Amino acid sequence: MDTQTQTNQNADALVITDLHVAVEGKEILKGVNLTIRKGEVHAIMGPNGSGKSTLVNALMGHPRYEVTAGTATFKGEDVLTLPADERAHLGLFLAFQYPSAIPGVSVANFLRTAIVSLHRDRRKISDEELLSGETPVAPAKTPAATSKVPAIKEFRKTLRDSLALLKMDESFATRYVNDGFSGGEKKRLEILQMSVLKPQIAMLDEPDSGLDIDAVRIVAEGVSAVRGPNIGILIITHYQRILNYIKPDYVHILVGGQIVQSGGWELALKMEQQGYEWLRAELGLPEEVLAGESEVGNERA
Q: What percent of the chain has pLDDT over 70?
């Protein structure tokens, strides 16, 4: 493939190059390279402490995760230089492993507010402009802001359609965000957000964590329903079981802060059958790396 063809293919791809990330002074990611294009589903597997959650949190701009080297570009932008809200505005989305509850805020109002924010012009007015009292010239809008904010009627239809697509009762929209939700309901709300907000690159941090097999199937069916040519999806998981329902195009094994093996869906099956020990023998990895590093704080690395 020539350089120009590769450049064109990566124009709307999230391209991660030699990414190094530290948490509380400890290096977790040690040079990750990965390209996610629209229409593709990637899965990252690996033992505890290997850096899976660190990767997606750093890409989304969590302040606890310090990028010490490397780049991550999307649509010509260096996303690592942007605050989290501007990364979302650009088209990135993160479904959390441990979603927070927001008592008093309904799911419908939460989603409506998020949509308005995504369509709003993100330009910040300088102190000089504020003090001068002059009205600044409206800047050119970013691609995500070119369309107008959907009308209430249009939003209701989108929400109803998404609820139906994910086989969720409409009463779900009136409940407070994650307040009293079961583990499965919290994960389904994350997928509902993805369906309504229509990101271009969606990262799912262990969507199967803490769920029984029936809940895993329901969440996986929701992801499969949203899957399509206009979205690239990255799934972080420990287990192959969710991949039985969401067959990924690519599977990557992250060990010791680096992707040490990549392949198709059959790689996930091999991991399920043989675990990680075969990697140590095949790649000459030290035993302590496969054992997993200690957790940093209260979150898995």
A: 82
Amino acid of residue 37: R
Task: Say how far apart CA 301 and CA 294 lie, in whole Å.
Answer: 8
Which tens digits make up the pLDDT trace of 57-107? Answer: 999 999 999 999 999 999 989 999 999 999 999 999 999 999 999 999 999
Tokens for 56, please give them: 């997606």
Q: Check: pTM over 0.70? Answer yes or no.
A: yes
User: What 8-state DSSP symbol labels residue 286?
Assistant: -
**Sequence-ordered list of residues with C-beta below 8 angstroms from that of 16, at least 6 positions apart, any chain:** 32, 33, 34, 35, 59, 70, 71, 72
**What one-character DSSP code corresponds to residue 170?**
G
Among 29, 33, 88, CA closest to 61: 88
For residue 16, count other CB atoms closer than 10 A to its CB.
24
CA 199 to CA 115: how far, in whole Å? 11
